[in-house]
């Protein structure tokens, strides 16, 4: 249901707020890829998303998944 209170069905324009939940799954998937040797946490994110440009140069995958 799009809205339980209003009894509205899910539509193609329904927005799902999943960002906070999906972060943990994304980080877990990245760690599985690292364990399989398919990437390194110390890889620059530019290796996988080159369109970010040189301003993202010092950022690594580790920076993105690390929770401080």
Rounded mean pLDDT score: 90
Task: Please describe the biggest sheet, giving its number of strands, its sense, and whether it closes into a barrel.
Answer: none
The total count of helices amounts to 2
Q: Which overall shape is indicated by the principal axes computed on the Cα atoms?
A: elongated
The Cα radius of gyration reads 17 Å
Secondary-structure element string: HH
Strand content: under 5%
How helix-rich are the residues, as a percent range?
25-40%
Distance between the termini: 36 Å
Query: What's the number of extended β-strand segments?
Result: 0
pLDDT < 50 stretches: none
Organism: Paenibacillus glacialis
Protein name: Beta-lactamase-related domain-containing protein
Domain Beta-lactamase-related: 4-66
Pfam families: Beta-lactamase (PF00144)
Description:
The protein is an all-alpha fold and about 70 residues long. It has a domain at about 40-68. The chain is built from 2 helices and no strands. It has helices at about 20-35, 60-65. The longest helix has 17 residues, at about 20-35. The radius of gyration is 17 Å and the shape is elongated. About 0% of the residues are buried. The mean pLDDT is about 90. This is Beta-lactamase-related domain-containing protein. It comes from Paenibacillus glacialis.
């Amino acid at each position: 249901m799009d809205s339980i209170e209003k009894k509205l069905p899910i539509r193609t324009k329904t927005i799902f707020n999943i960002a906070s939940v999906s972060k943990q799954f994304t980080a877990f998937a990245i760690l599985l890829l690292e364990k399989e040797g398919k990437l390194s946490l110390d890889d620059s994110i530019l290796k996988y998303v080159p369109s970010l440009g040189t301003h993202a140069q010092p950022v690594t995958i580790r920076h993105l998944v690390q929770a401080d």
